[in-house]
Design goal:
Blueprint: E1 2-6, E2 12-13, E3 16-17, H1 31-43, E4 48-52, E5 64-68, H2 79-87, E6 93-96, H3 114-126, E7 130-132, H4 135-143, E8 149-151, E9 178-182, H5 196-213, E10 216-220, H6 225-231, H7 237-250, H8 259-265, E11 266-267, H9 272-280, E12 284-287, H10 290-298, E13 303-307, H11 310-319, E14 323-325, H12 333-339, H13 342-362
Parallel strand pairs: 1-4, 1-5, 5-6, 7-8, 9-10, 9-12, 10-11, 12-13, 13-14
Antiparallel strand pairs: 2-3
Helix pairs in contact: 2-3, 6-7, 7-8
């Protein structure tokens, strides 16, 4: 059996999901996409495969097509290119983890988008079910005419092939705690952010909190070049300090932060396995990146989100995770994580785990999760 892998953009080396040095490579990897691709490929048993990007045509025969879900449902998406690719595939389709993207949770925002309706019509016709990231996406799809929707969350949450069980480390409530902060200092006024100024400024509060309250602080860059340069030990220190100054200026933290604060704590990873290994050493991760915080959940550790768009809010609501809007005043994330109902979160994650298994099975994929 041959499977077309549609819009999979991962890379690997010696059985590791890894990527090239961002500073020297023309291709700039999306770390979260890497995790999603790797998770799907671990979760289902596949024979021969061929990879196909949106906008290209499949020129060989396949038995089925598995589409990596992402935030495709937005008004900037080139649905003509997407639908052209799907029409070239003469086989059943299955999309896993489809998401809608809007700064706010306005379910009507694609009502007049004919390309989106055509995309959904193709999924309806050629899929047994559609796997979506959460209730907001499900509501948007329903308005676009979708049928048989399964709310599975993101397949990346089951990268380990097990259902995560979150518990509070004893050290979290002490000054000995080790905290990670997932950064996204490059946020701007676009479909991915409703309040970029407040989101960038919230980075200052998160970094200061980590410096002041924790024995160990790891600031995780995730594909923003200036952040990457701060962490890059191959660069001369003066260049790293200059990059740190640029990040601090962008988040309006010149009065509170010094470049050495970032140089001392910035962390970069070049593989999924390294990312998970570093997360295992921490007691919790807070911050701005969905997958940047998820690596804590994959290690059974708590996380706390600072949200600024529909996508992250949708995930937090689905998994019953603690979060706050970046436009709200700063709140103590450790206190909130300690007081949070993690039994409810674990139950919600178990429901998504079961739904994802059902989705794979009803679309003809043997799963090992």
């Amino acid at each position: 059996m041959k499977t077309a892998l549609v819009h999979f953009n991962h890379s690997s080396d010696k059985n590791l999901t890894t990527w090239a040095d961002m500073r020297t490579s023309k291709w700039k990897p999306n770390y979260g996409d890497m995790l999603v691709c790797a998770a799907i490929l671990r979760e289902v048993a596949l024979g021969d495969t061929v990879r196909l990007s949106f906008g290209n045509l499949l020129t060989q025969s396949v038995d089925r097509a598995l589409i990596r879900g992402s935030t495709y449902l937005h008004n900037n998406m080139d649905f003509d290119a997407v639908n052209k690719t799907l029409d070239s595939i003469d086989a059943p389709l299955a999309i896993v983890g489809l998401g809608a993207q809007n700064p706010t949770q306005d379910v009507t925002f694609l009502d007049q988008n004919e390309g989106a309706k055509g995309f959904v019509a193709r999924l309806n016709e050629r899929s047994k079910s559609i796997s979506v990231r959460g209730d907001f996406t499900a509501a948007v799809l329903d308005r676009l005419g979708a049928s048989n929707i399964r709310v599975t969350g993101c397949p990346s949450l089951f990268y380990t092939l097990k259902c995560p069980q979150i518990s509070l480390p004893e050290r979290l409530s002490t000054k000995k705690c080790a905290l990670g902060v997932s950064l996204h200092s490059g946020l701007s006024d676009n479909i991915f952010c409703v309040a970029p100024k407040e989101a960038r400024r919230a980075h200052v509060d998160a970094i200061l909190y980590g410096i002041g309250e924790c024995a160990k602080l790891s600031l995780f860059e995730q594909g923003v070049m200036t952040e990457f340069k701060v962490a890059d030990e191959k660069l001369p220190m003066i260049e790293r300090m200059e990059a740190a100054s640029a990040v601090i200026k962008n988040i309006a933290g010149e009065k509170e932060l010094a470049p050495q604060d970032l140089v001392r704590h910035m962390v970069s990873v070049k593989s999924i396995e390294e990312w998970l290994s570093l997360a295992a050493e921490l007691d919790a991760i807070i911050g701005f990146r969905f997958h940047g915080n998820m690596v804590a959940l994959l290690q059974g550790k708590p996380c706390y989100y600072l949200v600024y768009d529909s996508r992250i809010t949708e995930f937090c609501d689905l998994y019953k995770l603690p979060y706050q809007d970046v436009r709200d005043g700063w709140k103590d994330p450790v206190k909130i994580m300690i007081e949070h109902d993690w039994d409810a979160a674990n139950t919600a994650i178990q429901v998504c785990h079961a739904e994802l298994k059902e989705f794979y099975q009803e679309n003809g994929y043997n799963t090992v999760i």
